[in-house]
Design goal:
mainly alpha, 223 residues, single chain
């Protein structure tokens, strides 16, 4: 074919990751023979029994036979190369995690403050219920069920928006690696559990405090 050179296949290598780790395996990689001055002589991959300093120094002395200029070759282990490739991703992950923790803390504190305020505004209602015969335990359970319903609706809406945003991000940034995924189930479970616990605490303690107030004094104060 015009524009293509005839290539004789002499062997098939195992699948390897040749780019960023999250790109996964690229099957369209062809290894071509080269020489010292060849156009494809960009790197030399060497398998050693141990990746210690002595082995690297021994490899450097062997490469000096090709070029006495030691700056022409840099002996780097695959582990170091992988760390360099993953470092920008880790920095982005750290920044994203920090922003996520700040956003989660603001959400939890806002939820706690809102529920505390709303329950505090229902002191007269709680007094009337207890004056009509409701027990303190029944009032606390009622308020916690109502608060749980509100918190559950908010979490459902948040999960829908989060899943939609991650779906859009996954379509924009496809990850071909089998062990990397944008969707992290533990993150969803942890976030939902934390918000649920915060909602339960924010509704239980103000409700219990309001239920301990004497209903007569509450009604007289409002009157």
């Amino acid at each position: 074919m015009q524009g293509y050179a005839d290539i004789t296949i002499i062997g098939v290598a195992k699948d390897v990751v040749t780019g960023m780790p999250y790109h996964g395996i690229d099957p369209a990689i062809v290894y071509l023979p080269t020489s010292r001055d060849g156009a494809h002589a960009g790197a030399l991959l060497v398998r050693r029994t141990a990746a210690n300093a002595a082995e690297q120094e021994h490899l450097s002395r062997l490469l000096e036979r090709v070029d006495v200029n030691r700056a022409a070759f840099e002996v780097v282990t695959l582990v170091e190369i992988r760390e360099v490739l993953l470092y920008p991703l880790r920095v982005a992950s750290w920044i994203g995690s920090l922003l996520g923790i700040v956003a989660l803390a603001l959400s939890v504190s806002g939820l706690y403050g809102l529920l505390t305020y709303v329950i505090g505004q229902r002191t007269r209602e709680i007094g009337i219920r207890m004056a009509l015969g409701a027990s303190a335990r029944g009032v606390v359970q009622l308020i916690m069920r109502q608060s749980a319903r509100v918190v559950g609706i908010g979490m459902a809406v948040g999960l829908v928006f989060t899943y939609s945003a991650l779906t859009l991000l996954d379509a924009t940034l496809p990850l071909r690696a089998g062990n990397v995924s944008i969707f992290d189930g533990w993150s969803f479970v942890s976030g939902v559990a934390l918000v649920a616990v915060a909602g339960a605490i924010a509704s239980y303690f103000p409700a219990r405090r309001a239920a301990r107030v004497d209903p007569c004094s509450t009604l007289r104060a409002d009157g």
